[in-house]
């Protein structure tokens, strides 16, 4: 849980009692590989911090899945639009390996903010993380080639090509797995 301490103390300037209060209101959720954290059509009632494991977020159109995010160790995980609006989500979040997540419910987090406005710093941090990720991904699809998108993904998630299957990475990049193989080969040759 050192990463939570880094967020609370180092990044946000909160005190250890804020972290302790927050942790006292959380629950540990464990998922087996292929288990869902949330499924399309349900309301997201939590914000989570990935302690271990890995997950993917995807939307489905007919029988085709489109990956739109990955959550690795020490990252935030939630269906954020659903969480904020308390409306059903249009995405699925699935464990790609056995995963452990520290979760706080919508109700408990909002009560915490009501009780102590210092927790607004955490709420802003969470919002900023998801907003910046969304903007970077959107801009990348508008400005960058598939090769550049792959390089940006590897920079954002060092070692992801060893963690996540090529099929899922290709889907995230909006390309076919064969195209990703060529990109990886060319990237390796050009190094």
From TrEMBL:
InterPro entries (alphabetical): cNMP-bd_dom (IPR000595), cNMP-bd_dom_sf (IPR018490), RmlC-like_jellyroll (IPR014710)
Protein species of origin: Flavobacterium chungangense
Name by which UniProt lists this protein: Cyclic nucleotide-binding protein
Domain Cyclic nucleotide-binding: 13-113
Lineage: superkingdom: Bacteria
A Pfam family reported for this protein in Swiss-Prot or TrEMBL: cNMP_binding
PROSITE patterns recorded: CNMP_BINDING_3 (PS50042)
SUPFAM superfamilies: cAMP-binding domain-like
């Amino acid at each position: 849980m050192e990463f939570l301490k880094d967020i609370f103390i180092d990044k946000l300037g909160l005190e250890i009692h804020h972290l302790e209060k927050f942790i006292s209101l959380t629950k540990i959720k464990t998922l087996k590989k292929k288990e869902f954290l949330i499924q399309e059509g349900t309301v997201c009632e939590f914000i989570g911090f990935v302690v271990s494991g890995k997950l993917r977020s995807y939307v489905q159109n007919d029988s085709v899945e489109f990956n739109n995010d990955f959550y690795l160790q020490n990252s935030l995980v939630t269906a954020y639009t659903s969480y904020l609006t308390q409306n059903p989500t249009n995405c699925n979040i699935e464990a790609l390996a056995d995963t452990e997540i520290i979760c706080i419910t919508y109700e408990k987090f909002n009560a915490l903010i009501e009780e102590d406005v210092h927790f607004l710093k955490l709420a802003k941090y969470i919002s900023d993380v998801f907003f910046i990720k969304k903007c970077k991904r959107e801009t990348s699809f508008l400005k960058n080639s598939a090769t550049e998108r792959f390089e940006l993904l590897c920079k954002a998630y060092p070692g992801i090509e060893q963690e996540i299957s090529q099929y899922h990475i290709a889907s995230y990049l909006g390309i076919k797995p064969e195209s990703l193989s060529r990109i990886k080969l060319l990237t390796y040759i050009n190094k």
